[in-house]
Specification:
- The protein is of the alpha+beta class and 330 residues long.
- The protein has a domain at 235-295.
- 53% of the residues lie in helices and 9% in strands.
- The protein is built from 15 helices and seven strands.
- The strands form two sheets. The chain has a five-stranded antiparallel β-sheet.
- A hairpin with a 4-residue loop joins strand 6 and strand 7 (290-295).
- Helix 1 crosses helix 3 (47-55), helix 8 crosses helix 15 (309-328) and helix 11 (190-196) crosses helix 12 (212-225).
- The longest helix is centred in the C-terminal third of the chain and has 20 residues, at 309-328.
- The chain is globular and about 65 Å long.
Length: 330
């Protein structure tokens, strides 16, 4: 597709998609040219190569529809059923057995337990089965140039993607990923790849697509850099007497309540924690009523991977199920 046709396609996307407000006055060619100018001036890319690259980029309407309705919008009792399946738990146990040495080495180096690393891979891609079928360059370009609500974020990710492709000697049109441009078994965004991906076997490649050792160490490094606390709890159930607790429920995920504050709200925590612990009170919608949990610092770390309490709880509960299932096998 020629660059002129690329610009025309973006304008059509702006005028026909209900997921976006009207932005027909945006001059798409100027937006893309400005991005190319930035990459040339800031990172010394060849202008002609970028023009040729974007001539082969496609704006995907299905991506724009997907970004408007993420699965994190569903209630917990439905969301949980997607990930807490017997098949996924058994696959997690098998992944542990197949990669025991890499998992043990990563735990020694980074302090992150195997079951958490495995659960991330299980939730993200079902252990590599569902890594995405969109060209990463198409996904990032679609959201950078045709989705104004998050264009700044995805323009930055597109910038990081082109930089990592240059460093890793990857053809930008080759990798496939999610509709949001997340890549490989751990579904790293390009900025996360550049900051946290690890060459664990020292083969001069950070391969998060096919090298399980690199995948395991990259996730462990991500968690360590976000201050995972080895040996500390993740979350504990809470029981409420009355409804005073509702005053502290909000969208912030960082632990902010002392244990004494929980008691003052008539909340009973299910296990003893250090007196200086801080927790975040979380409510999860069940088919009948709600379920309350106290999330600790390690729960918050999981939300740095995906800023959703539903996601973090799915990872945590899947990790426990995998650990328990592995322990029940001879």
């Amino acid at each position: 597709m020629k660059l002129k046709a690329f610009f025309t396609r973006i304008i059509l996307c702006f005028t026909c998609l209900s997921v976006m407000s009207c932005v027909t006055n945006l001059k798409s060619s100027e937006t893309i040219n400005a991005f190319i100018d930035q990459m040339v001036a800031k990172h010394k890319f060849e202008r002609s190569e970028l023009i040729e690259l974007f001539e082969n980029v496609e704006i995907k309407q299905d991506i724009l529809k997907r970004i408007a309705s993420p699965s994190e919008g569903m209630p917990w009792y439905k969301y949980r059923k997607i990930f807490l399946t017997e098949a996924r738990i058994l696959a997690g146990v098998q992944f542990w057995r197949d990669n025991e040495s890499s998992l043990a080495a990563a735990e020694r180096q980074y302090g992150v337990p195997p079951e958490i690393i495995i659960a991330i891979i299980g939730v993200e891609t079902s252990f590599g089965k569902n890594t995405g079928n969109h060209r990463v360059i198409d996904a990032l370009s679609t959201l950078a140039f045709a989705y104004p609500p998050r264009s700044n974020f995805f323009s930055s990710e597109l910038e990081n993607y082109l930089l990592l492709c240059r460093v890793e000697h990857i053809q930008p049109t080759a990798p496939l990923g999610s509709y949001a441009g997340a890549m490989g078994m751990p579904q790293f965004m390009p900025s996360s790849f550049r900051a946290y991906a690890v060459d664990f076997d020292n083969d001069n490649r950070r391969d998060i697509w096919h090298n399980n050792g690199d995948v395991i160490a990259s996730i462990a490094n991500y968690f360590a850099k976000h201050h995972w606390q080895a040996g500390q709890p993740v979350a504990v159930p809470v029981t409420a007497r009355g409804e005073n607790y509702k005053s502290v429920l909000n969208s912030d995920l960082k632990p902010n309540l002392r244990l004494a504050e929980l008691e003052s709200l008539n909340l009973i925590i299910s296990r003893q924690l250090p007196l200086d612990s801080k927790v975040k009170l979380l409510s999860f919608e069940q088919a009948q009523g709600e379920e309350l949990w106290a999330g600790l610092d390690n729960f918050y770390v999981i939300t740095r991977y995906n800023h959703s309490p539903l996601y973090a709880m799915a990872v945590y509960q899947l990790s426990l199920s995998i650990l328990n299932k592995k322990g029940s096998f001879p």
